[in-house]
């Protein structure tokens, strides 16, 4: 029954997304890319998929401009989709953008904190995280003003409310603000897909729950591991964990108490997937835990981060096996993001002549 | 002789000859010492240049690896962290101090890197994701910067040694090509002047001796004549006026 | 003999003139230092295609001449190329000026002012 009326509003978008999905690079394409000798060759190989967007690039472009152009395509397609979306679908896509908005806002807060001209920051912002009142942020010259008059107006205001006041903005490290916002955002998104009448008990809520739970767990694990050796206290750390996910509540509690990598391994051992990641990345043994991180080219196996990305891609790929859902948009965006990262990585490897690690990209098709 | 006119303004006396001889000896000792110093420095210098060459090449590689680890960060974080890093830089964690090394009397500064504890500007960068890569990248770059510091030491040593060797070589050359020839010239000049005097003296003495002999001979003859004249009533007394004899007499007074 | 200790004993910092990636990496290594306000001087300069040569020269002079706390100045080779005459005529020992490669411009020993001096000395 759930699919009966989906196509009235969402069918067109879903169709387009599936079309976009088919234009994603395949393993074969990546294989060709890795054989390239110069960035120009890469450009040529990408021509079928990216054609117009790469046309304006100068010969032998820098990897960052290549990444920018590929992102432009994602943005253009996303905007087109959003223009077509209606009702709850449009709302869903808004949610997708919040993640990028958080990054942009964090960037602007950094600029304001250091009293930089925030105007020049606007071009550094991620275009997907653009919102109408963003240029207004540049008007603010101090944090209090920024908070009282500007941030309140942004779509992110609910995430600031209750957890951050304007005093926090200048004292807290910008990374903590960013992660607090992200936590609130994830929780809100999770609530949205599960409680919104259009989504609850549909494939959307099923897939999105899985994706978001995974995202929440990944953040919790990453935050824990990255906070070792920094001044972030355990209490502060615990505040950054999203309050859902497969690790929640026992796992996150154990994470909040973890002192070292081994502790993290123990905390996540309740979830089979993560346990496998830990074991195969060599982090679980503890002996090679620290050693694994040293050396620019020393890590032979895949890092935990890589495996998380891999897993995310698997989930996103599987999302396309379901029908009548907006979750494919999310999955598609994630897949495209990974594709951009892959292209950048391969281009970087070629530009810097580090071919031995060129195969480190993640391809699921 | 090329340096004939180039000598020191001294009176050609035996005392100044002694001085000059001492000076020449000093200059020769100094020359050999400086020459040895210059050789020692040059040896060091060549070693340093060789190491610079190596280090520069090594730097090329190290920086490449470091740049690559930054690419890894970009991949893992999925965005640009440059601006954030630039803004959050406050106090240098990585600093250098300088100590000295003595090479043949030349103090070569050496940079030594050290990290100050307790300020960690980017501890939380990439907290959400990519933190491990950021950490790894920091370590890689820290190692790269160490290489750079090492290279900077070499390069500073190079610049200073270059300067010092130039100065030393200039001195060596000055001694070899100016001071020593000039002193030698002076010695030669003094010697020749002294020889000249000697010869004059010798000639004079010889002349004096000759005159004396002739005077003596003349006196003897006169004596003889007088004795004979007194016998013959001074027959040829007026016939031979003794002009020469008179002049000789004048000359004897010296 | 060539340099009195006073010339370098206060020199603790490194300075960078480089493209964004080089500067970011070196800052990650922890060389970044901003002097306390009000003058708040940074010891790094990010150069991109839009940066004017005059700005680079100014920064070069500031780090080599005005500031007495910098021991080593790192400069990307392709940027040094833009102010080559300055770099070549700079011969002081302190601070040491070091040309470093950047991501997109691999190291070319032919252009390095110091290596060129090395070559000249050996008559190559």
UniProtKB/TrEMBL annotation, chain A:
Keywords: Hydrogen ion transport, Ion transport, Transport. GO terms for cellular component: proton-transporting V-type ATPase, V0 domain. Subunit of the V0 complex of vacuolar(H+)-ATPase (V-ATPase), a multisubunit enzyme composed of a peripheral complex (V1) that hydrolyzes ATP and a membrane integral complex (V0) that translocates protons. V-ATPase is responsible for acidifying and maintaining the pH of intracellular compartments. This subunit is a non-integral membrane component of the membrane pore domain and is required for proper assembly of the V0 sector. Might be involved in the regulated assembly of V1 subunits onto the membrane sector or alternatively may prevent the passage of protons through V0 pores. GO terms for molecular function: proton-transporting ATPase activity, rotational mechanism. It comes from the Eukaryota. Belongs to the V-ATPase V0D/AC39 subunit family. It comes from Lasallia pustulata. It holds the Pfam family vATP-synt_AC39. This is V-type proton ATPase subunit. V-ATPase is a heteromultimeric enzyme made up of two complexes: the ATP-hydrolytic V1 complex and the proton translocation V0 complex.
From TrEMBL, chain B:
Residues 211-254 are annotated as: Disordered. Its main location: membrane. GO terms for biological process: vacuolar acidification. One of its GO terms (cellular component) is vacuolar proton-transporting V-type ATPase complex. It is a peripheral membrane protein. Residues 212-232 have a biased composition (Basic and acidic residues). It is found in: Vacuole membrane. Keywords: Hydrogen ion transport, Ion transport, Membrane, Transport, Vacuole. It comes from the Eukaryota. PANTHER family: V-TYPE ATP SYNTHASE SUBUNIT D. This is V-type proton ATPase subunit D.
UniProtKB/TrEMBL annotation, chain C:
Keywords: Hydrogen ion transport, Ion transport, Membrane, Transport, Vacuole. Pfam families: ATP-synt_F. GO terms for molecular function: proton-transporting ATPase activity, rotational mechanism. It is found in: Vacuole membrane. Its main location: membrane. InterPro entries: ATPase_V1-cplx_f_g_su, ATPase_V1-cplx_fsu_euk, ATPase_V1_fsu_sf. One of its GO terms (cellular component) is proton-transporting V-type ATPase, V1 domain. Gene3D superfamilies: ATPase, V1 complex, subunit F. It is a peripheral membrane protein. SUPFAM superfamilies: AtpF-like. Belongs to the V-ATPase F subunit family. Subunit of the V1 complex of vacuolar(H+)-ATPase (V-ATPase), a multisubunit enzyme composed of a peripheral complex (V1) that hydrolyzes ATP and a membrane integral complex (V0) that translocates protons. V-ATPase is responsible for acidifying and maintaining the pH of intracellular compartments. V-ATPase is a heteromultimeric enzyme made up of two complexes: the ATP-hydrolytic V1 complex and the proton translocation V0 complex. V-ATPase is a heteromultimeric enzyme composed of a peripheral catalytic V1 complex (components A to H) attached to an integral membrane V0 proton pore complex (components: a, c, c', c'', d, e, f and VOA1). This is V-type proton ATPase subunit F. It comes from Lasallia pustulata.
